[in-house]
Design brief:
7-stranded antiparallel beta sheet, 3-stranded antiparallel beta sheet, 3 helices, 12 strands
Length: about 150
Amino acid sequence: MDDRQFRNAMGKFATGVTVVATEVEGNVHGMTANAFMSVSLSPKLVVVSISERAQMLEKLNQSGKFSVNILSSSQQDLSMIFAGQQKNHQEVKFERLGEVPVLAGAVAQIACEVSAAHIEGDHTLFIGKVTNIHTEDFEPLIYFSGKYRSLAQE
């Protein structure tokens, strides 16, 4: 199988959309990611997968802390900004959840400390110990087959 066939098959898995954020030397950095999942309830752990080519890789290694912001359906523009798809945009304002930057209006904000990092293929899997959570009752932003989607109304 070729890379395109693999990517197309993986795109058939509908996911939520997140922005992973961290802070290094007073500067906030973020990137869009849909490679996110919960790992454990006890202890509370999540994982994000970061490409070896992503600038965020070194930032997470430096900070040791990050947030996962599960985007709401009204935050497609933020997804595109942090995916590098919108170059001309206004500065994004971050709030704080404990010691990490978070995005207001997200369905969930999850603050984490890096508890482990595993290099697998061309990505590093960062295991995050959850230190704080804030949730809202908003509709999530969904990504499927290369397009943003929304949940169907009943």
